[in-house]
Amino acid sequence: MSELPPFVLFFIAALLVAVTRGTVRQVILLATPLIAGLHLWFNIDAGVVVTHSIMSYELTAMRADKLGLLFAYLFCIASFIASIFSLHLKDTKQHVAGVMYAGSAVGAVLAGDLITLFIFWELLAVSSVFLIWARGSERAFKAGMRYLLFQVLSGLLLLAGALVYYHDTGSLAFGHIGLDMGVAGWLIFIAFGIKAAFPFLHGWLVDGYPEATVTGMVFLSAFSTKVAVYALARGFAGEDILVYIGVTMACFPIFYAAIENDLRKVLAYCLINQLGFMVTGIGIGTALALNGVVAHVFSHVIYKGLLLMAMGAVLYRAGSINSSDLGGLYKSMPKTAVLGIVGALAIGFPLFAGFISKSMVMSALMYGDYGYLWLLMLFASAGVFHLAGIKVPYFAFFAHDSGIRTEEAPRNMLIAMSISAALCLFIGMQPQYLYALLPWEMEYWPYDVTHVLAQLQLLFFSALAFVWLNKKGFYPLGLPSVNLDMEWLYRKLLPVGVRRAMLFLRSAKESALSAVTAPVQGIQSVFFQSSVAKYYLSESWPTGSMVFWISVILAAYLLLGIFG
Amino acid sequence: MSDESEKTYLFDKPKNIERLLKWFYGACILLVVADFIFHRHIGFGWEEVPAFYAIYGFVACVVLAVIAKKIRKVVMRKENYYDE
Question: Which residue from A minimizes the CA distance to B78?
Fold first, then answer.
């Protein structure tokens, strides 16, 4: 049994989901991640390797080690929760895409070589885009195309990198790669970087995710970027440049999150911020930092999922997710509000999931003596709590009463959110169970006076700043608008540039034509004024008469040929 | 909906909001006081500043809001900007 790679279970389930309906399908949707998770937990130990030979290449369909396994467990949990959350749907496309997507993520983190990784990398792209397209609008379709373009580009770079890597080393095994590898290293690094939403390469995330369906964004937030974090942790741990990339990722999105109106887009920016903590940890590369990264991926998938589920429920019931339309929803959706607040507290409060993992990355920064970068990350910590933790729930559930009166979220959504909320608390209060699963050896315990006091001060005063700014009327309120970001380059600059270029070329063509035709017309007018023009055949040159005279000549040749 | 006589919710009463805020301010004060009672380990020099994390958290978020408002002047466009 330990030979069966768990992604196979997901792919078979995707087929079954496609041909079943109603309760049977719901059972398959819930059972698949459970069975795959139990199979992983009981049958597959670190060290299991499954290889296949295809066309003289040795491909490793599964290589289990502690790092890959922990991600695979997490993806099974995330897929289980997201499946419950989307159980009310009747949309076959979304259900199939969700199962395929989760299966591809599980396959990717257990892939032992770069080609297998590439295959799952592209499957992630193709399956996930349906979660955006399923929204059904033209806007979502276009956003999905842009999303797909970036994902496929990332895959192609990975494939190119893998081939160069094979040429250089004679091996396809996916282990530590490093940037010293030269071209291969950089190609793979950028491929991972696109999926991990590195600065300047992040447009697809904030452009695509908020266009996804209510349930789609919950799936999306859990898998693609986390697979990229896994791949960076395995391939590029300890690359110094990642520390700087990570700090940038943690800092710049929070400014956008502060002025964004779409609350799911606020969370998308905050997602990049949290990826920044992970990428920084990978860059530091010590056991504590890398364990912190893996632990933070675990916490983050669960609490970000919870926040997105709460906002998804708001979008589902209230019909809008713009902070300028919302407010006062705690009156009609009190349970969603409480669960959303748990997700918000889980960003960093002691006793919740985020605290026990983010503090590891912060401590690793401190031990590595990254003084100013540590200060910037502290700023990012305070900022993200201010936004994802306070702004999002406040403007959705409280603030001024928008007058929207709706129903509480459907029961399946409440159950999914409750499971996530319980996990947030469990991980936060009993971190030893998660720590025991971490891949590297370390001595760390987050609960001491220093950590708890420092973190509480930071977060309470971050909240105090929110209260104060609001009372002063200085807080940047949500306004119906779009904010220019990287996608401007290809949504505005590129189309406008192409249109301008086309206009320029057209006018160039016209002036070139007139430059040629003007002398020709001049010659013609000279010709018509001359006496030759009076000659019968020169008077007018209809093509018909030309063809007629040519036919006459040809007929004459023919007759001469026959009788001559 | 407005014609239904709606029940009053928790935060419809200003008194409840005030009460919540009072508890919140109280907690903030306690956290600063705690900074003088308990000893924090110091990793970086600037952590020695009394209530460093409280000051930093507050200032960080105010700075965030101020800069974000400036950025908004540069990057904000009409909602249908990309459809034009």
Answer: A481
